[in-house]
Amino acid sequence: MNEEGYQSLVEAIVGEDFSLVGSLFMSAQARPPVVIWAPRLEVLRSPILERLLDKWSALVVGLRPPPPDKAAAFIEREFAEWTMQLDLERRADGDTGPGDFVYRYYGAGIARQYGRDMTGLRPDAFAGHIGRFFSVVYGAVMRRPEPVFTEHEPPAAVLVRSWRRLVLPFCDADGQVVRFVVGNIPESPVGTLLDVMHDAALVTDGEGRVRLGNIAAATLLGAPPGRLVGCSIDGLVPELRPLIAEASGEIEGVSAFGRREVNFVRDGQPLVLDVSIGGTRVAGEPLFVLVLRDQTERVARERSLALEVTRDPLTGILNRRGFHERLAALLLPQRRRSDGFALLVIDVDAFKHLNDRHGHAAGDTVLQMVAACVSQVLRSEDVFARWGGDEFVVALGGVTEPLELMAAAEKIRRAVDREPSGPKAVMPVRLSMGGAFHPLHGRDFESVFGAADKALYAAKARGGNCLEIVAG
């Protein structure tokens, strides 16, 4: 690349016109790179790059980059594997033309991925479009001394889809960029495979620290892209920690621990996760793969269907099936006299006349009103259902004496009397009730119901609007 072509590319990148860079990569049949000046943390998608940018930003005074002597701290300890340092190599004649930056330090992790250590070489030692691109980016940062992020395909066929590079400038006393620290992170091959999964997936260690997380996991857990790695599972889905702790002591070779259903809350909304967990040991350290599937809609749908088959669609109270399911607890073998229950069968007086005179819509309104009124005066342990037509049934747990049953029936009657009823309240609603006791009038529900139903007919024969209780 001649001087004119180099300067044209530098000016284009400085002005954030990346079309020429795109053409350079397209001509090499490679995917055009991403170039972002002054990137936000969420763009970096790597904890190392995030920490590099944070550390560099803390050293900036005004708009002036840090001095060159501050660069050494960026290429040691946690950053050593994945950082490079480039220094400006001045020519004898003072000309600082393109390609005069030299790698003074080249991280071992980067060298392993690329297959060679570039220490002592210039960026244009990379063949073809990659070397030209690197040289031009450094030249652009010299003209515009601020951080720049790039993401590009690797220069060789390796199991890495892309490299993420953060270029940080350091200036001398004259304001000239004379040193770069570059974080260069290869996209994990495992991470690449995880990202193509539809399901959310996390890889954690035995302490619940996230080692890898795919895009679907970030979306499901409400985390910014690239911010999952390094997070504790306690801050994401704390309900998963017991699963990891339990599995940590059970790993033998490669182990699968099955599936669990976990409830947790995200942004105030309850969610249900189906979690598949498997684990192994790497260098003695336990690692787990958790595949998370959002089952909230399915669970809600199943609960809704369950309600549909146990609830009366008109009144919203239990239907016959729901009543029998709830009644099962009251039919357990009795241990005390108070373990019995009373059964009330309730019928709306003159309901057919109401329907004939005012229409079925009016009749439906009355049934809804009766259901609402009775529900308000019952206890949580009582079981209340619409039995069919205008007939209702109530099982009153622990009620074993006639006086108790009479008091309960009176509460129901008063609750209905207090409500406006019938079309424009022109027709009062009256209730006939028949009562019986379990186990006094039968050891099973059918026997007790039959007795209460006979008592109901006796109440209606007396003119209705009253309670009849089966004689002891």
Structural notes for this entry:
The protein folds into three domains: 3-187, 2-Layer Sandwich (Beta-Lactamase); 191-298, Beta-Lactamase (2-Layer Sandwich); 311-469, Reverse transcriptase/Diguanylate cyclase domain (Alpha-Beta Plaits, 2-Layer Sandwich). Helix 1 packs across helix 6, helix 12 (351-358) packs across helix 13 and helix 13 (360-377) crosses helix 14. The termini are far apart. It has a six-stranded antiparallel sheet with strand order 1-4-5-6-2-3, sandwiched between helices. A five-stranded antiparallel sheet has the order 8-7-11-10-9. Helices cover 35% and strands 25% of the residues. It contains 15 helices and 16 strands. The protein has helices at 3-14, 19-27, 41-44, 47-59, 108-114, 128-143, 189-195, 215-221, 241-248, 296-310, 320-327, 351-358, 360-377, 402-418, 445-461, and strands at 34-37, 83-88, 101-106, 148-152, 163-171, 177-186, 200-205, 210-213, 255-266, 269-282, 285-294, 341-348, 383-388, 391-397, 431-438, 467-469. The longest helix has 18 residues, at 360-377. The mean pLDDT is 86. The chain has 472 residues and is of the alpha+beta class. The chain is elongated.
Gyration radius, to the nearest Å? 38 Å
CATH architecture of the largest domain: 2-Layer Sandwich
The amount of beta strand, in percent, is: 25-35%
Approximate shape: elongated
CATH topology of the largest domain: Beta-Lactamase
Major sheet attributes: 6 strands, antiparallel
- Report the CATH superfamily of the largest domain: PAS domain
The DSSP helix count reads 15
Q: How far apart are the termini?
A: 109 Å
- Please give the number of β-strands: 16
